[in-house]
């Protein structure tokens, strides 16, 4: 199943070149009062979509696609999780501002602000354009069921689905979390694809082109820590909740973008999303 949020917070199921609008199903979600839960209510209850009634069908090409996760509790990101990206980061001091670059086992997972999340139709709005602003395309894993200290062998049972992630980055001396958390610096989309359609998350091809020129292309089989290993590691520090997002790392080829550029990111068996770049 391919689950999209679109237009004015509508929810739909993508089938071919159309979206079945099933927004009415949201009335079945549990009602919550303050204090609100730490999870995304729809992601925690995706089973309600199985028999959802279609209100209308809209052309996919005319829909404004939002982040498939409306309320992620946290965004966890894996730095330098491809060997070739680690090598390029060590060779290009502009990527990490001359600071020592550690492999992921030493660098650890970092967090991004949830306020940085947008969908592909909203685009990236660059700030601090006097600095280098880079694209980083990644496989994004969306957690479906709560868990702590999850074994790698059980990790994929906790996955609601996958989408494409753009981990936009301002280069500079500050901590990663600050430079990667401005508004619109986490793009998720174009929709959430359930595990039955994706299969092995370690057998996907990740790619991004800027203005038609391919910049990054790699297979997730080249991840240093696999998706199950990342989930296990993250859950050894945090309780994972439905709607939490794990960005699995970006391959080699990161590079700058500027206002007016257009990015086309794709992952096999998930899809592609077109994202415009403007100045905030």
Task: Please give a handful of descriptors for the protein shown.
twelve-stranded mixed sheet; 280 residues; 11% helix; mainly beta; Fumarylacetoacetate hydrolase, domain 2; 2 domains; five-stranded mixed sheet; single chain; 5 helices
Detailed description of the structure:
This protein has 280 residues and is mainly beta. It has helices at residues 83-91, 104-107, 176-179, 195-198, 227-235; strands at 2-6, 10-15, 18-21, 56-59, 65-66, 75-77, 110-112, 117-118, 124-126, 133-135, 137-143, 159-167, 169-170, 186-193, 205-210, 213-219, 245-247, 255-256, 262-267, 271-279. The chain folds into 2 domains: 2-66, SH3 type barrels, CATH 2.30.30; 75-279, Fumarylacetoacetate hydrolase, domain 2 (Alpha-Beta Complex). Strands 1, 2, 3, 4, 5, 6, 7, 8, 11, 12, 14 and 17 form a 12-stranded mixed beta sheet that branches. A hairpin with a 2-residue loop joins β2 (10-15) and β3. The longest helix has 9 residues, at 83-91. The two termini are 34 Å apart. The relative contact order is 0.21. The model has no long low-confidence stretch (mean pLDDT 94).
CATH architecture of the largest domain: Alpha-Beta Complex
How many beta-strand segments?
20
- The unreliable regions are none
CATH topology of the largest domain: Fumarylacetoacetate hydrolase, domain 2
Largest sheet: 12 strands, mixed
Q: Could you state the CATH homologous superfamily of the largest domain?
A: Fumarylacetoacetase-like, C-terminal domain
Determine and state the CATH class of the largest domain: Alpha Beta
Roughly what is the average pLDDT, rounded to an integer? Answer: 94
The whole-angstrom Rg is 18 Å
